[in-house]
């Protein structure tokens, strides 16, 4: 019985440190349209803030840890933003960067996906 404490404790510690890996149901998580929109707005604001401050681009892992949302969910949102031309990946290291925020118009952001 005592040997079960170690693996159980290790699992608990891992999921406390990495809540993005916790899912209620097996398989990939699916966000509602409203939640995807909110995540997209938060991600764009974080990326724009880093860009305007001259800080290095975000990585998917950094966004996941900061937002505490499943990596797959953030990646899905990033792919949709890239397909719409709002974000693009950096060439040197494969992380997203944002178009200059000042040059964006509301017509650039499409509703729904």
Any overview of this molecule?
The chain is 48% helix and 5% strand. It has 113 residues and is mainly alpha-helical. It has a single domain, classed as Winged helix-like DNA-binding domain superfamily/Winged helix DNA-binding domain (Arc Repressor Mutant, subunit A), CATH 1.10.10.10. β1 and β2 (96-98) form a beta hairpin. α2 (33-52) packs across α4. It is elongated. The mean pLDDT is 76.
- The coarse silhouette is elongated
Number of domains: 1
Report the CATH superfamily.
Winged helix-like DNA-binding domain superfamily/Winged helix DNA-binding domain
Q: For the report, how would you describe the main beta sheet?
A: 2 strands, antiparallel
Mean pLDDT over the residues: 76
How much helix, percentage-wise, in residues?
40-55%
Q: What is the first-to-last residue Cα distance? A: 50 Å
In order across it, which strands form the biggest sheet?
1-2
Oligomer: single chain
Q: Unreliable runs, pLDDT <50, ≥5 residues? A: none
Structural class: mainly alpha
Count of helical segments? 4
Round the Cα radius of gyration to an integer and report it.
17 Å
What fold name stands as the CATH topology? Arc Repressor Mutant, subunit A
| Percent of sequence in beta strands | 5-15%
Query: How many individual β-strands?
Result: 2
Return the CATH architecture: Orthogonal Bundle
Level-1 CATH class name: Mainly Alpha
């Amino acid at each position: 019985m005592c040997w079960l404490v170690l693996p159980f404790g290790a699992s608990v510690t891992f999921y406390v440190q990495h809540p993005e890996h916790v899912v209620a149901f097996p398989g990939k998580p699916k966000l509602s349209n409203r939640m995807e929109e909110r995540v997209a707005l938060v991600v764009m604001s974080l990326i724009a803030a880093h860009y305007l401050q001259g800080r290095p681009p975000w990585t998917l892992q950094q966004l996941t840890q900061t937002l505490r949302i499943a990596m797959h969910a953030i990646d899905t949102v990033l792919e949709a933003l890239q397909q719409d031309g709002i974000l693009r990946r950096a060439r040197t290291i494969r992380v997203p960067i944002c178009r200059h925020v000042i040059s964006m118009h509301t017509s650039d952001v499409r509703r729904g996906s």
